[in-house]
Design goal:
Length: 204
Amino acid sequence: MAGIAGRGTGNHARMRATYDALLLIDLQEDYFVDDELERCRDDVLDTCSELARAAHRAGVPVLEVRTEHEPDRSTWTLTMLEDDQGVVVRGTPGAARAEGLDPGPADLLIKTRDSAFFGTDLVERLRRLGVHRLVLTGVSTESCIAATARDAFAHDLAVVLVSDGTASVSWEEHDHTLEMLKTQHRQDVLTAREVAAQWGSDRD
């Protein structure tokens, strides 16, 4: 896969990078069991890893967001309880970082629901970092990415949805969700290459 290119775009790119944060959401083994997500797994993980490297070069904070549920079911969702089946349970192989993802130095944020904001200290972390715009990658587009994007909007944060750094159980669902967020919340949809170019990072 070709590396993410990015040519310097002057002060504008550096200023933009200063206020951005990259979120890598739910890139964990259990979430790639679905056939479609398994099919696009390598491309998504490669894209996210390369974008993380571009972020580090530009000084953009990187947060790895993982869902982890307790074995005692105390954090399970209603659907998990109804199905009597846990997913991304703490301490199991399925909750581990997806093999092939290389985020580099990244802060870890643990959540138990779709949104990375729900029941976490994400808002406080972003405020301390001076972040005004989130760059969202990960899975799945229609669930955890969309929920995080909507909550970001509620917290007056701009959002970029990385079209080739996100994926869904179906491409129709993926495309529909990105278009909906772009239309309803005026959130940008860009490729990883376009984001890296905004950050003004150099080719490896």
